[in-house]
Amino acid sequence: MPATTPDQGRSSRTTNKRCAECVRLREQARAAVLTADRSRLSDVRVLERRHRDEAHGPQECAA
Fold first, then answer.
1. 8, 30 Cβ separation under 8 angstroms
2. What is the pTM of this model?
3. For residue 56, what is the DSSP state?
């Protein structure tokens, strides 16, 4: 099971912890948005989806 970190105040349906890789990828996506780097944002979204599918199982409504 992946390492988890505190959720930093964000709500979650099942737990208040997030996988460390999810947190890292989310921060990369945030940085891409803040710097208006659409190419990097697209890459990070692909990496996030791949990670979720492999580490947490496929989700029909992943947001």
1. no
2. 0.63
3. I
Tokens 């208006």 belong to: 36
Contact call for residues 5 and 23 (beta carbons, < 8 A):
yes
The answer to whether 19 touches 35, Cβ cutoff 8 Å, is: no
- In angstroms, the CA 56 to CA 2 distance is 9
CB atoms near residue 7 (< 10 Å): 13
pLDDT digit string, tens, across residues 17-34: 789 999 999 999 999 999
DSSP reduced 3-state for 4: strand
Give the whole-angstrom CA distance, residue 52 versus residue 36. 24
